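fwd from M.: "can u put these together and see what the complex looks like"

so here's what she sent:
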Amino acid sequence: MPIAVLLATLIGLTVAGYYMGRSRAVAVGGHGTRHLNSLPSYYGLYVAAWCGIPAVSIVVLWLALEPEIIRALLVATLPDVAGTWSDGTMALMLNDIRNLAGGNIVSRDVDPELRTAAEYYAFLRNTGFAAMAVVALAIAAGGLTYGRRAIHPDLRARNRVEGVLMVFLIISSTVAILVTIGIVLSLLFEAIRFFQRVSPVEFLFGLEWSPQTALRADQVGSSGKFGSIPLLMGTALISFIAMCVAVPVGLLSAIYMAEYAPPRVRSAVKPALEILAGIPTVVYGFFAALTMAPFLRDWGSQIGLSISSESALAAGLVMGIMIIPFISSISDDVITAVPQSMREGSLGLGATKSETIRRVIIPAALPGIVGGVLLAVSRAIGETMIVVMAAGLAANLTVNPLQAVTTVTVQIVTLLVGDQEFDSAKTLAAFALGLVLFFVTLVLNIVALTVVKKYREQYE
Amino acid sequence: MDEAMTGMNEEVGLSFGADDSEPLGQTPGSASGAETPAKFVSRGVDVFYGAKQALFSIDIDIMPNEVTALIGPSGCGKSTFLRCLNRMNDIIDGCRFSGSIVLDGEDIYARAIDVVHLRARVGMVFQKPNPFPKSVYENVAYGPRIHGLASSTADMDEVVRTSLERAGLWEEVKDRLHEPGTGLSGGQQQRLCIARAIAVEPEVILMDEPCSALDPIATARIEELIDELRTNYTIVIVTHNVQQAARVSQRTAFFHLGKLIEFGDTDQIFTNPRAERTRDYITGRFG
Amino acid sequence: MSNAASPAAAAPRLAAAPTPTSVRVKASLTRRYRAERRFRAYGIVAILVALGFLVLLFSSIIGNGYSAFWQASLRLDITLDATAIDPDGTRDPDTLATADYAGLIREALSKRFPGVSGRDARRKLFGLVSQGGTYDLARMVSADPGLIGRTISVWLPLSDDADMLIKGHIPRDVAEAERRVSDQEIVWLDELAAKGDVEKKFNVRFFTNGDSREPELAGIWGATVGSLLTMLVTIAISFPLGVASAVYLEEFARKNRWTDLIEVNINNLAAVPSIVFGLLGLAVFLNFFGLPRSAPLVGGLVLAIMTLPTIIIAGRAALTSVPPSIREAAYGLGASPVQAVFHHVLPLAMPGMLTGAIIGMARALGETAPLLMIGMVAFIVDIPHGFRDPATVLPVQVYLWADSPERAFVEKTSAAIMVLLAFLIVMNAAAVYLRKKFEVRW
């Protein structure tokens, strides 16, 4: 791993820079360090910063841009026929070249032209890396020298170092924004490509979803159907079932915990519910598929109901279990935030505890509870593993919980898992679905957070 | 009537020496004369919060249709005692009670006594106005509704109207009965809480520093109201404000460090306190 | 209200003379206390339902999974014939590793059941022993070539169907056509078991192997290493960024539109469905930057982005809980704001930040959906050695096995879940311990 060696060298240089800077500062400062503007270690950090930061930035920049640069250089040398290739063919070709250069294809006979290209590719990579390494080391050495020479008793090393640190902090804090922009742009970009093939009207209002695009143009049903309504309905149905389980159970247990439970019970039950919250969703999915669905199916056949083994009911029930702790912890917070004076006011009038809870505390906590439920809904909509494992793939447009339905997240997973060429309407549809999912949950979250915030302010 | 009783109390009170551990003034049993029985008779009331004792052997008789003021510095136990009278201390974890408090001949700490029933008879108004986040109307209707005191909507309207009238709030809120009670001013909110308490038709109203969160004008309004309410209800008021006790009450109890130091006619307590500490407190030397 | 008109009427009220209120309240009490008890019961039922689900979940997983830690094995006397293993006597490692050990096992089985003849019956007989037996023999012989020519008695793993039968997961009382083990095989196995030659041994393979198509050979080591590598990337990226971000927002940033925007952003990112982060990873890291598919590097990056909000929020909470007096004391000694934060505030907030980070990591460790998007769902036999190697992680392994039709994978899946949950419990316990240990020190 030459890259590791390079990075280790750079780090070594940086550390060396720190010690050189520090000793230089002591030397420059003369008797003791009283004449220095800052502590010697700041001078060390100053030199280290000059040495390490630019060089490492170069390495990172190269690593990020290398594939693009090399691809461009490689494409330029490919035979002229390459100009007529479609994007997909080109991608396949490049992939072959890359694998060949990496030594991953050994058995197959390869086209000599491809082999030449692969050799050229390997050559480009090696040269590029060597050039980058030389540049990075040179910059590090240059920075080291510059930094060391700049040391002077009047140099405000501390302020400079703190400035650098502050820049790092500011950059870190903008990462959250960059991520959001990244999400929006990547979803939007791919979704727009999707909408160039499938009309948004069909996508948003179409009643039929069957994304199988044909391999050959003359195949039957080659176009595929991309109406998302069945998926949205399926998502809504499963989320609704989940809420029917989670809201009463979560809310009532929160009420009991907050208002009735003696401290001992509370301190035992709360962590138990938190365990429920910490279980990975894939475990719930497995539970739904292995235990819940067969149980429901057998039970249904006993009482003469035909329940699909991938029924919305099984997935929804298990999702509801997953959401119980979420609802109960938010409701618990919200209920305990209702001022004690409300309880006293009601009890002082001779109300019983349950009358106080039902007529005063719950109405007072309602906005907070509603906010929490909205957050839970957004979580249910975005939940993936349970539905992937327990709900079906068939896009039935139904509200019957005993039948199989599919959801937005299930379809995203099915469309993208496995080997597919990336540019088909099929894979792009996943991004369009992702965009819908992102915006729906975003709106729910913003509304919920605003409601909860308003509620908190009311009692602060 | 008040004067006659005060006289009697004074006489008996004098028989007690200057022993600091015994309250001065009215003595146990003295007030429960044959023709005017005390509303509340408290004997040997001790209250503990966990291991800490908050009240030490409190003996007080509270007379009907009078305003009894409980005064004393912060943490002296006056609010604790007030909350014993309708068992509001029950809801505090680790609070223990011993002794007896008798309301109209019934020990309210007896097993047979139901707190819900007790609190319906002994209403309470709190330090900070705490209207429920409901409309003005619903706030007042809350008590009658849970207790099933109004048999029809018209009945309920009537209860709400009279309660608000008696709390002196009707004129101010009659046009916005269905707006949230939390939208009223502080003083109005406190009067709303008083209206809410009297809507249940209690026999006693406990007030825990009802004016401490209010401005002087609102305070004056509430004090007037307390005086008016005395004709129908027995009122016990805890106050931080010595002048307020002097203005509104007929009888005053001075608490210090969980003990009842002196209890007697308000005029006497303020003009001629028997205990040194009472004198120091009402003249503002401590507390 | 009856006494409202005349104050005089109320004054000499006799002791315990009931008022209308008193009477009516008393009348309502029975009904109200019944409602009270009912309401309380709802709460208890709700909690019992939630806890019941928890118990059901655990008992279903443990009940299905505990048997995976044992593997039914068969004792065979195998003659390590030198002519079959190393005809030229070179002891060349390659020769030793690739010799026909399967043939030796077949021979030993034939010797054991001399009466078995016919292609079908023999195939069934040989099918009892897992492929893994040949690997075991190869490893033994490679490690000690001196064994060649001797006859050794070894325990070899049985195939998954035989294993399931012995563990009782395949019912014996159904028609032969409806079960995967034939009557003949049952007879053989019972005979072997009667002689003490079939035993359940601790399943070391489960902890040391990578994935496999053969359930009895499939292990979680590959996925565990994948998870470890992924988590390393995640923590290396999200912890410094998260802490830096929290420090900036809480200690240095001025309150303005920009920081408000960042704050709203963080809160919303914390609630974005995880699969969306997978889409981001697919579009940006794989398609734009051309990073390798299925690699822990990319998985770690995606999970780092996903955990970042959690760490920032926990970090800010930890910083707010440090009292301002600490900062003021540092300023009073002439420290710069940066020094005050990095020398005094940050060390005090560190336990809280670590707790948040561990909880974030625990969540990331159990996360599956975004990793499916970036191809960590491939079938990978090899143990990954680097951040760019194709790998899978524990929860994805669970997903993959859950999808496999073999009955034996059900117990593997459950066992893998138990291992995953054990990791999570350890992490959460660490977080709780940290929180308890460093709870409010001022």
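replying to her w this: The CA atoms of residues 296 and 370 of chain C lie 12 Å apart.
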